[in-house]
Design goal:
This protein is mainly alpha-helical. The chain has one domain. Helix content is about 45%, strand content about 0%. It contains five helices and no strands. Helix 4 packs antiparallel against helix 5. The protein is elongated, with a radius of gyration of 20 Å.
Length: about 130
């Protein structure tokens, strides 16, 4: 049955259905970060969950390191803070977050574009 179902193109099978949380591709960009152009759907029932400060920091640095628009800032930080190479990962992340927040706030004063506004929000971290 599995072999046959792979060749039945007009019939929905588990092999040709979109994933459960597939949101239909990219949304139309509003000029902001590409990170916010990724639609999706929730899975399961909604539940409340509180994160502690360390978990919030981990989520923040994960998003920063995986956002295409933040990559130039990661490179700039690495080049301008060569002594940061010898820090632990946790301390390096904390110093980058602080530097990034200050750097984006400084740049936002000169450039109030939608992308800089999104970077400013992103630099402040989760609430």
């Amino acid at each position: 049955m599995t072999l046959c179902s792979r060749y039945l193109h007009r019939i929905d099978t588990k092999f040709n259905q979109p994933e459960r949380n597939y949101g239909g591709g990219l949304k139309q960009s509003n000029g902001g970060l590409t990170l916010f152009d990724q639609p999706g759907k929730t899975l399961g029932a909604k539940t409340q969950f509180k994160l502690d400060a360390d978990e919030l920091e981990q989520a923040h640095i994960y998003i920063l390191k995986n956002c295409d628009e933040v990559l130039p800032y990661l490179k700039e930080f690495a080049q301008t803070h060569e002594n940061a190479r010898h820090l632990s990962d946790v301390e390096w992340n904390r110093q980058f977050i602080k530097w990034f927040k200050d750097r984006v706030a400084q740049l936002y004063k000169r450039d109030c574009s939608r992308i800089m506004e999104d970077l400013l929000s992103l630099s402040r971290g989760p609430t």
